[in-house]
């Protein structure tokens, strides 16, 4: 009997171990679900594999369908009993965090910032990289020393973020650009600023492919930018219509 029990335990243990290793892929493919509320998870504007080989499809699936979805779900939960807050656009909530109810202020900061940052992030990718042109290229040269210098300074700032956070290029109503980094899910929107581009340097954004090689991820990321979309954001910022 003991031999049979030992064999049964070994078989069960092996099955459990196999399911453990299989879990990440199944988890990535599971449909995202979030409580209903005023905030919604925007769909990816391209296929999950559109950024291959620089950002792998599995990372995109997990990052969008789980991490971003969780920010949206938690944000909706935070505003559920605060109708006035729920009726505000996310950029106004973030710009007025100090005025938000204290009981939900941290949840708004973390999850509202995460929602806004990621919605921006998906929207500027899916492209083929290259370099900016036209008025945007002129602004980069004027304010940031040119495209090559921007990439070097941006990648350096991203590599220096301690732990989790973001690196951004901000843009104001006059079209002036500046480099900024923020911890966690903080965003220049919290200072009533606007973001032209931003890169996520949380480990979940790159670890499956790059492991601890964040600088390699930062360098590769430029290959998936869609400069037409970035130029449209620049024009919207100057027109005063850029939200997140």
Keywords:
3 strands; 244 residues; disordered N terminus; mainly alpha; minor pseudopilin epsh fold; 3-stranded antiparallel sheet
Question: How would you sum up this structure in a few lines?
Answer:
The chain is mainly α and 244 residues long.
Question: How is this structure best described in words?
Answer:
The protein is mainly α. It has a domain at 134-239: Iron/manganese superoxide dismutase, C-terminal domain (minor pseudopilin epsh fold, 3-Layer(bab) Sandwich), CATH 3.55.40.20. Helix content is 55%, strand content 8%. It has ten helices and three strands; from the N terminus they run αααααααβββααα. The protein has helices spanning 2-29, 57-79, 83-86, 90-95, 102-124, 134-144, 147-160, 207-210, 214-221, 227-239; strands at residues 165-171, 177-183, 195-200. Strands 2-1-3 form a three-stranded antiparallel beta sheet. Helix 1 (2-29) packs across helix 2 (57-79), helix 2 (57-79) runs antiparallel to helix 5 (102-124) and helix 7 packs antiparallel against helix 9 (214-221). The longest helix has 28 residues, at 2-29. The relative contact order is 0.13.
CATH architecture of one domain: 3-Layer(bab) Sandwich
> Percent range for helical residues?
40-55%
Low-confidence blocks of residues: 1-34
Find the structural class using helix and strand composition.
Answer: mainly alpha
Number of strands: 3
For CATH, the homologous superfamily of one domain is named as Iron/manganese superoxide dismutase, C-terminal domain
Question: What is the fold named in CATH at topology level of one domain?
Answer: minor pseudopilin epsh fold
| Overall outline | globular
CATH class of one domain: Alpha Beta
Largest sheet: 3 strands, antiparallel
Topology as a string of helices (H) and strands (E): HHHHHHHEEEHHH
**What topology, given as strand order, has the largest sheet?**
2-1-3
Determine the mean pLDDT: 89
DSSP strand (E) fraction? 5-15%
If helices are DSSP runs of H or I spanning 4 or more residues, what is the number of helices? 10
Radius of gyration from CA coordinates: 21 Å
**Terminal residue distance:** 65 Å
